[in-house]
Specification:
five-stranded mixed sheet; Isopropylmalate Dehydrogenase; 344 residues; homodimer; 12 strands; alpha/beta
């Protein structure tokens, strides 16, 4: 295997529910797993320094690739986009994205508020020409892997060109970041038949057939879980409802299973005997099984981690950001959008 | 309890995957459970008569309330709306809805194709004034009951007035048919906050606050499974995607659970000990746990049964149709729509 290129990542030390207690061990773990990664851990030095000291002395090969970068404050988890724009300067998220804007980092990772990340991404990095708002791609777990789904809430009403942009960005991400060769891309609709759907999906369907991606046509809601596509595209309004409904159903099922296998002697015995099988089913239902959702359409790489990610999950998001940075995802997206005149 | 009023139902004997082997026993069961019900079982007499004879002699109290009504043919299960309109005359579905149109029945129940039912409902009964297309209300099972959700696919692009119509129709159905007093109605959106959503949901939100229903505001996708609302309203495009995605996830989970508890000795032992608890969880995941989805907005009562309904489920749809007929659901909907000038 060829040596990977060097990549420099800015990690928001304070983003996410668990702050430094997750971001620091995840940073060390990512540095260990990827020897050409360099990390700028961005946060309040008064907190970063003692936390780092508590890790004991690091191997030289790790220590030389880890730099602390000072920020004045940490944004609260539930911060709005407007608050982040008005009061966010000096925060670890702002400083992390600023490093990307200045070319001092190739990508930024944070587990902070999605709204704040989008707002600061747009403000500090800017959008690629012809793309109106950043698009968040989420990964939905199914029996054999994940379906990438976008958009999930930023773009509530979309044009056919935006749907095509989502498809192109999703396809490039699945291929370059997730390593899926020739990813199958579908357009979510109320039926598979050519005649189905409203005018916008009909128009997007026509455009998508001409695109240099593996577009397989209309897919339905259940195909998110059937493994039929690698990337599923829809407007942000439907996407948000679908994702949250699925999360709601998954949480309900998890709680009912836990209840069923803790109530009564036979339930508890059943749970004990089947604990391994049960664990797999519960893990499969976990909507955060795949961590690291790229914000697509920006002039730089920003990757969102789940707020409640643990060290293993946060490490996954960091490694994914390294991959997106090395593959120059924004440049590739920009090139396809311009080549096919897909400006919205 | 006051004696219920008489209600006459037309049952499509051939609708659904199992045809007469489900519709006939369900008809007899419904007649037994509801002593003021009268049923016209609509189908091909050459098939109906021997099937009925095979049941042995019926009690007089049942036999006197069951009438066979001749149709020439049965529509295939996967029939399109256009086929039903062009070639459906003489079919059991057409004849059943025709009985409602003529006033010879108060409601029609079928497990046939949704598209065919909608098309023939519009053609033979007509829409209530100001309503453009029939709306299908589905019931989504959650921990403590069901959330009624509409629309689910007939109305892909909606106006704010249509969303308000859906809310009014859903509220009346939940109250009059399902017996929920003061049902809580929510509008599906990408967030709870007043500022969220696109212009159509914003406008609908404003109108809904003025309506004589228990409108609780915006709800999110996960609230379909939280028990926070009795009725959730959205456009048919999103509704269809949500419903099918949930069905996809439920089917995947059911198959993974079955697999987990049949693989290996410990899995099988676990499944055996926890079989009762497991059965409850699996039943809770079954999207067809509640059978009987009313087609709202027509000038008569038409209730859709799941195609794969068994006798118990089909009986439920029949009893629900009886309730909708007695409560004069179309008249009540019409009255509210006119009173509040909600014509689309």
């Amino acid at each position: 295997m060829p040596q990977p290129e060097k990549a420099v990542l800015a990690i928001d030390a304070h983003g996410g529910d668990h702050g430094l207690s997750v971001t620091l061990p995840a940073t060390l773990s990512a540095l260990q797993q990827d020897s050409r990664l360099e990390i700028r851990l961005v946060g309040v030095l008064d907190q970063l320094e003692p936390a780092l000291a508590a890790q004991g002395s690091l191997e030289q090969s790790l220590a030389s690739r880890l730099h602390l970068h000072a920020a004045e404050s940490a944004l609260p988890m539930d911060v709005t986009a407007i608050y982040a724009l008005r009061k966010g300067e000096g925060s670890s998220l702002w400083a992390g994205i600023q490093l990307v804007a200045e070319g001092a980092a190739d990508a930024c990772v944070s587990g902070g508020s999605t709204g704040a990340m989008m707002a600061l991404g747009v403000r500090l990095l800017g959008m690629l020409p012809g793309i109106e708002r950043p698009v968040l791609m989420a990964y939905i777990p199914h029996a054999d892997g994940f379906t990438g789904a976008l958009d999930l809430g930023a773009n509530l009403s979309v044009t056919e060109r935006q749907l095509v942009q989502f498809a192109v960005m999703g396809s490039l991400t699945a291929e370059k970041v997730d390593g899926i060769s020739n990813p199958r891309v579908g357009l979510l609709n109320v039926g598979h038949e050519e005649s189905k759907g409203h005018v916008t999906v009909q128009a997007a369907h026509g455009l998508l057939k001409e695109m240099p991606i593996n577009y397989i046509g209309f897919v339905e809601g259940n195909d998110l879980y059937s493994g039929k596509v690698d990337v599923a595209v829809c407007d942000g309004f439907s996407g948000n409802l679908i994702l949250k409904a699925s999360e709601g159903l998954a949480r309900l099922t998890i709680s009912q299973l836990r209840q069923a296998f803790s109530a009564g002697l036979s339930g508890r015995l059943g749970g004990w005997f089947a604990r391994r099988a049960l664990k797999r089913v519960l893990e499969g239902l976990d909507p955060s099984a795949h961590n690291g959702a790229p914000l697509l359409g920006l002039r730089g790489v920003v990757v969102k981690s789940h707020g409640h990610a643990d060290t293993r999950a946060y490490t996954q998001a960091i490694l994914e950001a390294g991959q997106a940075a090395r593959k120059e995802l924004p440049r590739r997206i920009d090139s396809l959008i311009r080549q096919y005149n897909l400006e919205a």
